[in-house]
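2024-03-11 09:14:02 DEBUG pipeline.ingest accepted 1 chain
2024-03-11 09:14:02 DEBUG pipeline.ingest length=148
2024-03-11 09:14:03 DEBUG pipeline.predict start
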Amino acid sequence: MTELSFDPTLTSAREAHAAGELSTWSQAFLRGPGGNLGVADPLLEDDDINIYVLAEVDLADVYPCSGPDPEFDFPVPLDDYEEHVKAMMRALETGWDAPPLFVHMKSLLLVDGTHRREALLRLGRQRYWSVLWMNRPALIGRGQAPPW
């Protein structure tokens, strides 16, 4: 994979989306400082069959897989969680161009951005931008070999 540098901001994600480079932006962001290789690596493996869209979503409609509750798939200690969320709230209040969340399109599972989502909710935001992705559905039509 070619090393590309993108700012970890919503603005640069919009620019990448407009240029047809959202999957490349996503890899650069997820592999950057504070990144999430647990999301980046599987996306890279399936990059040729993934569809990426940048869209505004209702924050109440996405389901985080991490957080302070021990029942989350990836629990975070409450003190660490609160500290991180409060720092993000301060940054948002002073104009931080926060990067989009990462949400699986079909399940609405929030796989990156739990702290950003919580900070936005606490500041009264109901919607925010997300990179939504899913596997491209199989083509069905004339000329295709049957799957059997």
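2024-03-11 09:14:41 DEBUG pipeline.report The chain has a mean pLDDT of 89.
2024-03-11 09:14:41 DEBUG pipeline.predict end
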